[in-house]
Amino acid sequence: MSFSKIILQWYSGHKRTLPWRGSRDPYKIWLSEIILQQTRVAQGTPYYLKFVEHFPTVTDLAMASEAQVLKLWQGLGYYSRARNLHATAKKVAFDLGGKFPSTYEELMKLKGVGDYTASAIASICFDEPQPVVDGNVYRVLARYFGIDKPINDSKGSTYFKRLAREIMDVENIRDYNQGIMEFGAIQCAPQNPYCLHCPLNQSCVALQKNVVKELPVKLKKTKVRHRYFNYLVPITKNENGANSTLLRQRKSKGIWQNLWEFPLLESEGDIDLSQIKARIPEVLPLHGNSEVELFNESPIVHKLSHQHLYTKFWIVQSNTDLTGAIPFDALEEYAVPVLLADFIKTYKI
Hints:
- There is one protein chain.
- The chain has helices at 3-14, 26-36, 41-54, 58-63, 66-73, 80-95, 104-107, 115-126, 135-145, 154-167, 173-186, 205-208, 273-279, 338-346; strands spanning 225-237, 243-245, 248-249, 260-261, 264-267, 290-294, 300-303, 307-318, 326-327.
- With 349 residues, it is α+β, with helices and mostly antiparallel strands.
- It has two domains: 3-214, Endonuclease III, domain 1 (Orthogonal Bundle); 225-346, Nucleoside Triphosphate Pyrophosphohydrolase, CATH 3.90.79.
- Strands 1, 2, 5, 6, 7, 8 and 9 form a seven-stranded mixed beta sheet that branches. The protein has a two-stranded antiparallel sheet with strand order 3-4.
- Helix 1 (3-14) crosses helix 11 (173-186), helix 2 (26-36) packs antiparallel against helix 8 (115-126) and helix 9 (135-145) packs across helix 11 (173-186).
């Protein structure tokens, strides 16, 4: 039996029940694929369900504000995906009459849609014979064929894409593509793959050569940048006597664009209370005396793909009337990075 037929046979008996599986609606397939980029199925599924509930169609998503989209996305990370999602929804709804392109070539023109996503939508929704190559597929192919080419450089990715095209099942591309991705997620898992009961174990090169743990090969990642964030959390009484604070929207390119955060002091390293007090005027126009207290003695380490953030929250009690201050109990209405969302849940005035 051929490689592709074994994958199809395995898939028929092992596929998971997922809310988008079985659908040919390109909106739902596109939405699920964008959410699952850099995200595990278990984490991404509740987000998918929330988006479908709030925005049943691509036009509903297009009509939403960016703030609404970012708020629903909160906690998934890689927020450029959410901004691209919104931009593409507008493109499809307003420029394409609410209909997604039906070919790989046209899908590739949509913002935030790359080779993998275009291949997935084209094959699953429109039966176009395009091979999908995601992290799961790279792993299956690298191990089964014993390929030690790096999967994260241009030559390696081109090689794997060509191989994937040669072995795919053209007649049943929809189930085959879903099957090989599922196989990599469940059977040929990153850690502790089930080699003993694998239907491909008799001809798997990596298993025969005892190099399963070494494949696939990835080039070393970009050097991690270390950044030190000091969030100032101003606490003041509003005219009704309730506690208010201040959020500002990040407008610069980079992490968390258009999300909200407390006034931020970034430093070269860990800084103490006296240094914080000296720098408060850089971001907060306070008048009179204010009390500053460190909320967390040890910095919270928040790891992103190419940078680690070492974060401290400083509570600043003040009588200054802050322009744009918002009630503390209204913070949950704003789309904030998960780092700040966790603080807001924890901090009690």
